[in-house]
Design a protein that fits this description.
Order of helices and strands: HH
Structural class: mainly alpha
Radius of gyration: 34 Å
Distance between the termini: 70 Å
Number of helices: 2
Largest sheet: none
Strand content: under 5%
Shape: flat
Number of strands: 0
Length: 94
């Protein structure tokens, strides 16, 4: 197999260097992930055992929602609100 005529030697060296760097990067990544997997598994088991098998990543949720504010409108305010609502619904194209 010969070298193609339209490809320079620098392009071939660049592609080879990138391919080699990618292979090395993947090998290091796989090694790091495999090495840390057992460490994290043991650490997670210890934390779960100490805390009674409950994760504390999420805060406790409230049993009921927040206090709801309520404001009474006067009849004039209710009429003004109804007028505005009619204007918005009448102006909207069908």
């Amino acid at each position: 197999m010969g070298m193609p005529e339209h490809v320079s030697i620098l392009q071939l060296v660049g592609v080879a260097a990138l391919a080699l760097a990618a292979v090395i990067w993947v090998a290091v990544l796989v090694r790091v992930l495999r090495r840390d997997r057992e460490v994290h598994r043991v650490r997670f088991a210890e934390v779960a055992r100490r805390r009674g098998h409950r994760l504390r990543a999420l805060p406790h949720q409230r049993r009921k929602g927040p206090h709801v504010e309520h404001v009474e409108l006067t009849p004039a305010e209710q009429d003004a609100f109804a007028f505005l609502a009619r204007q918005f619904t009448d102006d909207r194209p069908a």
